[in-house]
């Protein structure tokens, strides 16, 4: 856990430095009491950052997985699945609707 130790040491040094600038110096007993608390906080923050990194990497892998990409040549993507009303609406070239758009209830895609 070198990152956690480094972050905890950095925080503790900054606290001691700011206190010294105001004339308040930290004794060794206070420092010993604070070290576990600062380490716990640094550990918690590092764990959260690690979870974010892992989630991000997993989302990137899933987003680029070709198994989940739409493929118009797939065996599951056939025109037979679409009813006549839907196809007429989709392929209609009249002024009342936009060509190439249609709604088919119960289908997500």
Notes on the protein architecture:
The protein is an all-alpha fold and 109 residues long. It has two domains: 2-68, no CATH class; 70-109, no CATH class. Helix content is 59%, strand content 0%. Helix 1 crosses helix 2 (28-63). The longest helix is centred in the middle third of the chain and has 36 residues, at 28-63. It is rod-shaped and about 85 Å long. The two termini are 46 Å apart. The mean pLDDT is 86.
Coarse structural class: mainly alpha
Radius of gyration: 30 Å
Order of helices and strands: HHH
Q: What share of the residues lie within helices?
A: 55-70%
The domain count comes to 2
The overall pLDDT, averaged over residues, is 86
Uncertain residue ranges: none
* Cα distance spanning the termini: 46 Å
Main β-sheet, in a few words?
none
Quaternary state reads: single chain
Q: Name the shape in a single word.
A: rod-shaped
Strand content: under 5%
Number of strands: 0
């Amino acid at each position: 856990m070198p990152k956690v130790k480094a972050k905890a040491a950095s925080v503790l040094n900054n606290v001691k430095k700011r206190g010294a600038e105001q004339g308040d110096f930290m004794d060794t007993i206070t420092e010993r009491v604070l070290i576990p608390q600062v380490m716990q906080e640094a550990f918690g923050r590092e764990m959260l950052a690690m979870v974010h990194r892992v989630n991000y990497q997993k989302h990137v892998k899933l987003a680029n997985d070709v198994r989940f990409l739409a493929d118009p040549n797939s065996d599951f993507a056939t025109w037979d699945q679409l009813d006549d009303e839907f196809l007429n609406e989709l392929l209609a070239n009249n002024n009342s609707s936009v060509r190439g758009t249609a709604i088919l209830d119960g289908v997500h895609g």
